[in-house]
């Protein structure tokens, strides 16, 4: 009987990362596939299991698909059913601008999400205490196009009777999001936006993620679970019923991994830098900090999530410069100055993000993962004052490891550039590769290998 | 909501002003008029940079001197020493480099939005003229002397405070009155100050009243709690009032009421003094922090205010005006040409917690009371942000500043 494995997959902007950890311990296996070669997630999983000859007991998946659909505006437009007189709420928003100097500020709700002709106001009213003031008039509801529907009625979080009546009046099978279920909180605009985004993702999830589950089950594998923004995971049916938490699934998994590596320090800053973005998370007392609102590109919406900020700076754009500087093997004709600029930009962002949650870099550990994080981490730590950097084993698949319920035993295979395995301690400057990432130890830093395979970089006194 | 704001100093007034913006009906309850206590005579600094706690690393070495020198910058009256000793022990515990870094980080979060939070309520009160953003000069006898405070300055800079070293020539060009005594300075260009802290407080208070706030001139002696909510207030004039919510902003006089709603909070008064030189003949344009003299110098509209000094002697003991005279003496040292023919003296009670951070947050035992007191040396600086955040808490919105470090329950373990 072959040992059963817990499988974690992180579909990022550039790569699909896979970890297979045997249940009951033992060394985990990892794989990294270019995203372009692994567009069919189910096939990639089935291929991996066959090639590695393993039987998964659990499969957990994080994916950027929902976040990308919102960022690129390729998620579905949504029919809005709201209280009569509130049809313009998507355009009004909070009248707040993130950039006060912007000449053309982005609308509070993107135009593709809520075309005005898809907004319908129904007579009927519930007051702030949840008492019905005017009965709901469903006869005002026209025939709706075949699009997902968001119902967001005034004070539905106080009394959902009217929203339930709307749900009952719609044809069976309509993709429907009800505000009192998606986000039962005060403040109309925030509830409306969360509900609309939730509805908007339903066709995508039904079209792309639900079939992954069906294909895996058909192949005799277990039904997968999808990682959520708050660090939990959901079955395909749960994800289909409430898809909004699927945004930030990968970043949340990364934050969980960072928290695990920072369990014995008071505060830590996590940097998970992949090919397209860099995710910054924060940990206090071994717990990843949470937030009630999420920023995704120009959009800010209410969602309980781990507090992860995504910066639009990734390794793909920096690779030529890193090659030119000799940090990465291979030829490149980039400008090494680009790297210093990237380090300075990341350092400023990390400092801002950490201080916002009362975490001072001087007192914090920097946990760096992702394919590119270990290359820049020590330089960033030097700029912001972190005295120590921790690079987990197989940093390139750090986010995927966060989805596993127990920390996987990852092989530490750090090698110096001349090919000799790295053990013990050494002073920088030094470059160490492990097949998933390269760690750069600049002059003035000292690297040491911990027994669990993590690389510790300390600033020389 | 009908909310009683206990205290009409700068913190209570700012809380009320922000609460009114959300449509709440505010009633001020205070035995004194606006800005008749601590908000009256403070140094008037509005500093996003004032994030360092009072207790800094190495301070424990100075404790013996505090008891011996009754006119030093920090002193404990001998008969008060046994009463305040546990508080001072906790104060020293909070002065390790790691604690100071943690505290400064939290305080910077509270103080950085200072102008964003004052501006809307001062515009409404037509009083933006009482606030100026002319920068603060930290001055030293020389660059060598400044090194003693370099760790704190580095910490400030790491928190994003803009601070620029200023050599002797530039210092004299910036402030000719400093010529001779001071040879090195650090300019915090983003700092501001008020021309009159009492007038600033009164302007905000008066606008609240103009916008419908009621005023009750009485001291709250007790709170009625029913079913997990405060339902009424008992006043010292024998009457009682119903209320739907309470904001406790009673400064140094908050501890007893706070203890009714949660675990004891170690609130202590650090008595501060000022001398206002009404015959001021200097032409200062910045506020000046004389670091070695431990004194803040602020050119105000009623004269040059010299403020500072910390005295531990409780809320009841009469002021020791020799301390104000000592401030004036140090002022003469700084500015030998200062005309000191007309002066006035004052003492006020800073509400201080051992970690130099205020208490801002929901009262632990009830669901409709919020604490906003204990701002220590930075009441003017922190009041407006506190007001905005209290309004956020009352409305159930997410705070815009991470308030966790200011939690009313943070002293529970040791209290």
Automatic annotation (TrEMBL), chain A:
<feature type="region of interest" description="Disordered">
    <location>
        <begin position="89"/>
        <end position="111"/>
    </location>
</feature>
<dbReference type="InterPro" id="IPR002821">
    <property type="entry name" value="Hydantoinase_A"/>
</dbReference>
<protein>
    <recommendedName>
        <fullName>Hydantoinase/oxoprolinase family protein</fullName>
    </recommendedName>
</protein>
<dbReference type="InterPro" id="IPR045079">
    <property type="entry name" value="Oxoprolinase-like"/>
</dbReference>
<dbReference type="GO" id="GO:0006749">
    <property type="term" value="P:glutathione metabolic process"/>
</dbReference>
<feature type="domain" description="Hydantoinase A/oxoprolinase">
    <location>
        <begin position="191"/>
        <end position="319"/>
    </location>
</feature>
<dbReference type="GO" id="GO:0017168">
    <property type="term" value="F:5-oxoprolinase (ATP-hydrolyzing) activity"/>
</dbReference>
<dbReference type="InterPro" id="IPR043129">
    <property type="entry name" value="ATPase_NBD"/>
</dbReference>
<dbReference type="Pfam" id="PF01968">
    <property type="entry name" value="Hydantoinase_A"/>
</dbReference>
<dbReference type="GO" id="GO:0005829">
    <property type="term" value="C:cytosol"/>
</dbReference>
<dbReference type="Pfam" id="PF05378">
    <property type="entry name" value="Hydant_A_N"/>
</dbReference>
<dbReference type="InterPro" id="IPR008040">
    <property type="entry name" value="Hydant_A_N"/>
</dbReference>
<feature type="domain" description="Hydantoinase/oxoprolinase N-terminal">
    <location>
        <begin position="7"/>
        <end position="170"/>
    </location>
</feature>
<feature type="domain" description="Hydantoinase A/oxoprolinase">
    <location>
        <begin position="337"/>
        <end position="404"/>
    </location>
</feature>
Automatic annotation (TrEMBL), chain B:
<keyword id="KW-0560">Oxidoreductase</keyword>
<protein>
    <submittedName>
        <fullName>FAD-dependent oxidoreductase</fullName>
    </submittedName>
</protein>
<dbReference type="InterPro" id="IPR036188">
    <property type="entry name" value="FAD/NAD-bd_sf"/>
</dbReference>
<dbReference type="GO" id="GO:0016491">
    <property type="term" value="F:oxidoreductase activity"/>
</dbReference>
<dbReference type="InterPro" id="IPR006076">
    <property type="entry name" value="FAD-dep_OxRdtase"/>
</dbReference>
<feature type="domain" description="FAD dependent oxidoreductase">
    <location>
        <begin position="2"/>
        <end position="393"/>
    </location>
</feature>
<dbReference type="GO" id="GO:0005737">
    <property type="term" value="C:cytoplasm"/>
</dbReference>
<dbReference type="Pfam" id="PF01266">
    <property type="entry name" value="DAO"/>
</dbReference>
């Amino acid at each position: 009987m072959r040992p059963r494995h817990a499988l974690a997959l992180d579909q990022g902007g550039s790569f699909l990362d896979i970890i297979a950890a045997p249940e009951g311990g033992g060394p985990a296996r990892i794989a990294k596939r270019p995203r372009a070669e692994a567009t069919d997630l189910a096939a990639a999983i089935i291929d991996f299991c066959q090639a590695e000859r393993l039987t998964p007991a659990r499969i957990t998946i994080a994916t950027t698909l929902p976040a990308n659909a919102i960022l690129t505006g390729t998620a579905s437009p949504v029919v809005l059913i709201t209280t009569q007189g509130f049809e313009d709420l998507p355009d009004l928003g909070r009248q707040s601008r993130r950039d006060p100097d912007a000449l053309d500020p982005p609308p509070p709700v993107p135009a593709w999400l809520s075309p005005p002709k898809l907004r319908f106001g129904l007579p009927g009213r519930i007051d702030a205490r949840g008492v019905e003031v005017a009965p709901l008039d469903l006869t005002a509801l026209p025939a709706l196009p075949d699009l997902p529907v968001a119902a967001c009625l005034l004070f539905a979080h106080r009394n959902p009777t009217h929203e339930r009546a709307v749900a009952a009046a719609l044809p069976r099978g309509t993709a429907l999001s009800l505000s009192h279920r998606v986000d039962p909180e005060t403040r109309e605009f925030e509830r409306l936006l969360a509900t609309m985004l939730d509805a908007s993702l339903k066709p995508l999830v039904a079209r792309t993620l639900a079939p992954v589950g069906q294909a895996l089950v058909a192949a005799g594998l277990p039904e997968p679970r999808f990682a959520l923004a708050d660090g939990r995971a959901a079955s395909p049916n749960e994800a289909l019923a409430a898809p909004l938490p699927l945004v930030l699934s990968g970043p949340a998994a990364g934050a969980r991994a960072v928290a695990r590596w920072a369990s014995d320090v008071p505060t830590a800053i996590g940097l998970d830098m992949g090919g397209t973005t860099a995710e910054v998370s924060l940990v206090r007392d071994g717990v990843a900090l949470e937030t009630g609102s999420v920023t995704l590109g120009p959009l800010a919406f209410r969602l309980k999530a781990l507090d992860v900020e995504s910066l639009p700076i990734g390794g793909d754009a920096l690779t030529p410069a890193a090659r030119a500087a000799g940090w990465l093997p291979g030829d490149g004709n980039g400008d090494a100055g680009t790297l210093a600029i990237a380090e300075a930009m990341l350092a400023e962002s990390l400092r801002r993000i950490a201080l916002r949650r009362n975490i001072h870099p001087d007192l914090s550990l920097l946990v760096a993962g992702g394919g590119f994080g270990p290359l820049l981490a020590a330089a960033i730590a030097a700029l912001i004052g972190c005295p120590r950097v921790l690079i987990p084993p197989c940093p390139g698949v750090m986010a995927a490891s966060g989805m596993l319920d127990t920390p996987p035993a990852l092989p530490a295979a750090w090698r110096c550039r001349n090919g000799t395995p790295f053990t013990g301690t050494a002073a920088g400057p030094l470059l160490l590769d492990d097949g998933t990432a390269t760690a750069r130890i600049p002059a003035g830093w000292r690297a040491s290998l911990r027994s669990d395979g993590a690389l510790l970089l300390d600033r020389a006194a | 909501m009908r909310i009683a704001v206990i205290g009409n100093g700068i913190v209570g007034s700012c809380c009320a002003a922000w609460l009114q913006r959300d449509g709440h009906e505010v009633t001020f309850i205070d035995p004194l008029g606006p800005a008749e206590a601590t908000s009256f005579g403070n140094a008037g600094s509005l500093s996003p940079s004032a994030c360092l706690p009072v207790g800094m690393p190495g301070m424990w070495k100075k404790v013996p001197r505090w008891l011996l020198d009754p006119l030093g910058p920090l002193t404990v009256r001998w008969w008060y020493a046994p009463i305040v000793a546990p508080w001072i022990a906790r104060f020293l515990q909070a002065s390790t480099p790691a604690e100071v870094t943690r505290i400064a980080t939290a305080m910077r979060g509270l103080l950085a939005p200072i102008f964003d939070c004052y501006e809307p309520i001062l515009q409404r009160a037509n009083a933006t003229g009482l606030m100026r953003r002319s920068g603060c000069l930290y001055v030293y006898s020389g660059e060598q002397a400044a090194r003693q405070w370099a760790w704190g300055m580095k910490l400030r800079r790491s928190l994003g405070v803009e601070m620029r070293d200023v050599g002797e020539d530039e210092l004299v060009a910036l402030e000719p009155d400093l010529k001779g005594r001071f040879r090195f300075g650090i300019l915090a260009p983003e700092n501001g100050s008020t021309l009159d802290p009492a007038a600033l407080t009164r302007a905000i208070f008066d606008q609240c009243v103009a916008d419908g706030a009621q005023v009750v001139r009485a001291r709250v002696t007790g709170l009625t709690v029913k079913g997990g909510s405060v339902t009424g207030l008992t006043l010292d004039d024998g009457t009682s009032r119903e209320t739907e919510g309470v904001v406790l902003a009673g400064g140094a006089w908050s501890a007893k009421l706070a203890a009714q709603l949660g675990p004891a909070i170690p609130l202590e008064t650090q008595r501060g003094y000022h001398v206002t030189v009404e015959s001021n003949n200097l032409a200062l344009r910045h506020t000046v922090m004389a670091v070695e003299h431990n004194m803040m110098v602020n050119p105000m509209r009623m004269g040059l205010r010299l403020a500072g000094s910390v005295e531990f002697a409780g809320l009841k003991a009469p002021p020791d005006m020799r301390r104000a005279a000592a401030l004036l003496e140090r002022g003469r040292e700084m500015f030998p040409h200062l005309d000191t023919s007309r002066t006035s003296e004052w003492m006020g009670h800073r509400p201080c917690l051992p970690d130099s951070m205020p208490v801002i947050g929901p009262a632990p035992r009830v669901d409709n009371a919020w604490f906003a007191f204990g701002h220590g040396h930075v009441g003017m600086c922190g009041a407006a942000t506190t007001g905005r955040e209290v309004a956020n808490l009352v409305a159930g919105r997410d705070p815009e500043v991470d308030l966790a470090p200011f939690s009313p329950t943070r002293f529970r373990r040791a209290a």
